[in-house]
Amino acid sequence: MHKHKHKHKHKHKHKHKHKHKHKHKHKHKHKHKHKHKATSTSTSTSKAQAQAQAQAQAQAQAQAQAQAQAQAQAQAQAQAQAQAQAQAQAQAQAQAQAQAQAQAQAQAQAQAQAQAQAQAQAQAQAQAQAQAQAQAQAQAQAQAQAQAQAQAQAQAQGQGQAQAQAQAQAQAQAQAQAQAQAQAQAQAQAQAQGQGQAQAQAQAQAQGQAQAQAQAQAQAQAQAQAQDGYQLLLAPPEVD
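The structure assignment produced for this chain is given below.
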């Protein structure tokens, strides 16, 4: 290492020898002594320069190592941050999926409950309608029997129009009471089964109209039969 640096500083040594040769012309006695001193000075200068270069190289290497370590640390931190961000995103996605699944399940349950309620209401309405129809049929049969009895009594006894009208009025009152009872029953059933008062009133009105029509028909028939019986009573007996 010293030999290499000595070659590098050859120009400086050569200049020093040239000066020494120039002085040798004037002072020949000091030639040997001065030459020895110049050689030691150049050697110490070369050593100092070599040490300075070595220190500079060592500092440069230390700085390069420090920079490399800093870059490695920065890369490691960047990788750690990227991993943390990826984990956070994965967790957020998992939470979003879990929330979406929970919402879907809640919606499915709500739909199932709504369907079950709709089916229960439909069944209750069907039962109420069936009961109302059965009651209407029973009332129609009772009215038909009452009309038949009234007609039979009017024909057998030959009563006048006044009696027929009185019977028709009595039957109308009985039918009105039956209608009121049927309306009360229909309203109670509609309220118990979750139906509105509007449906119960509509059914009751429909039944009332049907019964009113049946009453009108019964009165008309009773009057016609009473008139026929009265005419038969007034007609003179046929002579054989």
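Interim note for the steering committee: The mean pLDDT is 81. The radius of gyration is 65 Å.
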